[in-house]
Amino acid sequence: MTPLIRHCLDTDVPAITAIYGHHVLHGTGSFEIIPPTTQEMADRRQAVLDNDLPYLIAEINGQTVGYAYANLFRPRLAYRHTLENSVYVHHQMGRQGLARALMAELMSHCEQMGGRQMIALIGDSNNASSIGLHLALGFQHAGLMRSSGWKHGRWLDTVLMQRRLGPGDATTPTIIGQ
Please, is 123 exposed, middle or buried when counting C-beta atoms within 10 Å of its C-beta (0-12, 13-18, 19+)? Predict the structure, then answer.
């Protein structure tokens, strides 16, 4: 089933809160321990939108089943062409191509707006599905921060991956933000 990929609306926030909350409680992709409230997720979404960056959802049969967004990698001006991605899919909808569809659309949006690099900070070096997704989409390993998080009674690594967007560093970039 092909999902509808569209911009996230205010009405999608409860669904994305539930999707993320499950991953916070049961997974290692996020290093958060306590799931954020719906208001916190709404505030985080608004921060992405305030940076004029994409926040997308995947919808099937009118249900929000996944989401992806890009935000600034770091706030300093020199990083303005480097974006960080996040993607989460409903825990019962994994391995159906939703994350791949979301990420492909997200990267397209970021390239069109002038993004030059995309960074993935992946929780847990054993997170084969996220690492595999990013590799399939052209990301390369850029580093590993060993034992950088403690969750579910164990130390977890953070995997850094990076992908060029558009011309990457081959040309002088256009201005993103100020």
Answer: buried
pLDDT digits (tens, 9 = 90+) for 70-93: 999 999 999 999 999 999 999 998
Q: Which domains does the chain have, with CATH numbers?
A: 4-164 (3.40.630.30)
Please choose, from the candidates 114, 141, 98, the residue with its C-alpha nearest in 3D space to the C-alpha of residue 54.
114
Residue type, 121: L
The pair of three-digit structure tokens given for residue 107, joined into one six-digit string:
């990267």
d(CA 87, CA 99): 6
CA distance 149 to 94: 24
Q: Which of 32, 71, 38, 76 is nearest to 55 (CA)?
A: 71
Task: Give how far Cα 45 sits from Cα of 10, 32, 152, 154, Å.
Answer: 9, 17, 27, 30
pTM value? Answer: 0.94
Angle at 112 between CA 76 and CA 170, to 5 degrees: 70
Q: Cα dist. 78→38, 40, 85 in Å? A: 32, 28, 18
Cα end-to-end distance, the chain, whole Å: 41
- Distance, in Å, from the CA atom of 173 to the CA atom of 166, rounded to the nearest integer, reads 10
Decide if 106 contacts 128 (C-beta within 8 A): no
